[in-house]
Specification:
CATH architecture of the largest domain: 3-Layer(aba) Sandwich
Number of domains: 2
Shape: elongated
Number of helices: 7
Order of helices and strands: EEEHEEEEHHHEHEEEHEEEEEEEEEHE
Distance between the termini: 64 Å
Largest sheet: 6 strands, mixed
CATH topology of the largest domain: Rossmann fold
Strand content: 35-45%
Structural class: alpha+beta
C-alpha cells in the first residue's frame, strides 16, 4: 500500500469537491441450512488511469478548505492479497458464505472452493486529512471505491459472473496507517455489497451442475480380468494428454483405446493429443465427461499397452498406493511416487481418497494404483499452504468415476 508521501501531487491547493459516501452496506445472512458453493479470494488489481486524481489531502485544520490533489501512480501501490483475502473471508463467514484462504490447489479441480473471486478496483475518490505535527504523521480519511468482481468457476473453467459494486469507507481516528485503514474499510464495504448482490447470492446457492444435468446413456466396455501387475508394467498404460496449452495425465482402461482422465485436463476440447511412455503419439477424441465429478472418457487409436485393471473395492486405511503421471513437465512422464491411504473424505457430497503420495501439476487424470497395479482412484488435486505441498492430496474413487460417466465394465 502506498505511503501518502510517495504519491505524486499535482501541485497547488484548492477546495476539494464534496464527497458523499453511500450508506454502510447491510448484508442479510443466508438462511440456515442453505447449501452454499465454496468461494476463495485469489487476487486484487487496479484499473485506474495513470495521472488521474484519486484523492485530495490537506492538513487537520484546513482539510475541507485547502487541499492538494493526489495523482494516481500505479508504481506507488502494492496490494496485499493476504489482507484482502482476510477481509473477504471474514465478511463471507459472517454472512453464511463458505470461503477459505488456507488451501492452494496446484491445478483447477473440484475442491471445497469451487469458485475463485478476484477484485478489479476501477475507481477511487478519497478525502484525506493529515496532522503533520505528529511524529509520525497521522491521517484520517473517507473513500468511495468502485470494484468489478470477477467470479471464476473452476469446474466450467470460465468467468461466470462480473458484479460491479460501489461503496464507501471512513477512518475517523487519526493514525499513522490511516490511508491504508481508509482503503481497506472501503474495500470491506465493497465485499459486503458483493455478498448482498442478487447475482452473487444466486450463483453461490444454485444447484450444482451435476445435480441438474441429464444422466449420460449407459455404456459398457471390455475391462481386463483381475490380475497382478507390477507398478513398472502398469506405468506403461499411463499417458500424457495435451489439450490447448494445458497438460495432464490419463490411463488406458480397455484394449480398444478407452482412456480415463479429468474433465479439467481436456476442458472443452473435442480432440486431444495423447503421448505414450515410449514416445508414440496419437489423437484422442473426448467421448463424454462429467464436469461436476471432474472425469472424462477419451478414445484413442492403436493403444501401445495393455489396459489397467480397475479395482472398485475401496482401499483400506494405511494401504500402500502409487501415483503415476506426468508431473510439472512432459519430460517427467511416467514418474511414480508412493504413499499410503490417509483417509476418505467427502466434500460437497463428493467422495475422495486422501493420500500423502506426492503429486504435482500435470499428475491430474493419472491413476492411483494399489500394490498389485490395479487402479483405485484418479488423481484430481493437491493442497499447499504458502506455496508448499503438505502431503494432503485427493483422488476420485474409480467406482465413482465410472458411475459419473455411466460406464460399466464387462468381462
Amino acid at each position: 500500500m502506498a505511503a501518502i508521501g510517495c504519491v505524486a501531487m499535482a501541485g497547488g491547493a484548492e477546495a476539494a469537491p464534496s464527497l458523499d459516501l453511500p450508506p454502510p452496506v447491510q448484508v442479510a445472512p443466508l438462511a440456515a441450512g442453505t447449501r452454499v458453493e465454496g468461494a476463495k479470494f485469489v487476487r486484487g488489481a487496479f484499473q485506474l488511469n495513470e495521472g488521474a486524481t484519486w484523492a485530495y489531502t490537506g492538513s487537520i485544520l484546513t482539510c475541507s478548505l485547502i487541499s492538494s490533489p493526489l495523482r494516481w501512480n500505479a508504481a506507488d501501490w502494492e496490494l496485499d492479497p493476504a489482507r484482502l483475502g482476510a477481509v473477504f473471508r471474514e465478511e463471507s463467514g459472517q454472512a453464511g458464505f463458505a470461503s477459505s484462504q488456507n488451501v492452494n490447489l496446484f491445478e483447477t479441480g473440484p475442491s471445497s472452493e469451487r469458485y475463485q473471486v478476484a477484485a478489479l478496483i476501477t475507481g477511487m475518490d478519497a478525502r484525506l486529512c493529515s496532522n503533520v505535527e505528529a511524529n509520525p504523521v497521522v491521517y484520517s480519511g473517507r473513500m468511495r471505491m468502485s470494484v468489478e468482481w470477477q467470479v471464476f468457476d473452476s469446474v466450467r473453467r470460465q468467468i461466470v459472473a462480473r458484479v460491479p459494486t460501489t461503496a464507501g469507507g471512513e477512518q475517523k481516528r487519526y493514525t499513522s496507517d490511516g490511508v491504508e485503514r481508509t482503503f481497506y474499510d472501503a474495500f470491506r464495504q465493497n465485499v459486503r455489497a458483493l455478498l448482498a448482490s442478487t447475482q452473487y447470492r444466486e450463483l453461490m446457492t444454485q444447484p450444482t451442475q451435476e445435480s441438474s444435468r441429464p444422466s449420460l446413456p449407459p455404456m459398457t466396455f471390455a475391462a481386463p480380468p483381475p490380475a497382478v501387475r507390477t507398478i513398472a508394467s502398469s506405468a506403461g498404460a499411463v499417458v500424457t494428454i495435451f489439450a490447448g496449452d494445458g497438460m495432464g495425465s490419463g490411463f488406458l482402461i480397455a484394449g480398444d483405446g478407452l482412456l480415463l482422465t479429468n474433465h479439467h485436463v481436456v476442458g472443452s476440447a473435442r480432440y486431444v493429443k495423447v503421448r505414450w511412455p515410449d514416445g508414440g503419439e496419437g489423437v484422442g477424441e473426448v467421448l463424454r465427461s462429467d464436469p461436476g465429478r471432474d472425469v472424462a472418457l477419451v478414445r484413442t487409436s492403436a493403444p501401445r499397452s495393455s489396459p489397467l485393471v480397475l479395482r472398485t473395492l475401496a482401499p483400506r486405511l494405511g494401504e500402500a498406493v502409487f501415483v503415476v503421471g506426468t508431473p510439472l513437465d512432459q519430460r517427467f512422464q511416467g514418474s511414480v511416487t508412493k504413499g499410503v491411504v490417509s483417509a476418505t473424505r467427502v466434500y460437497e457430497g463428493r467422495a475422495y481418497i486422501q493420500s500423502d503420495a506426492v503429486v504435482n501439476g500435470g499428475n491430474s487424470g493419472g491413476p492411483l494404483l494399489d500394490e498389485e497395479g490395479s487402479v483405485v482412484g484418479i488423481t484430481v488435486s493437491g493442497m499447499e499452504i504458502g506455496g508448499a505441498p503438505v502431503g494432503i492430496n485427493l483422488f476420485i474413487p474409480i467406482d465413482d468415476a465410472l458411475r459419473a460417466l455411466s460406464l460399466t465394465p464387462s468381462r
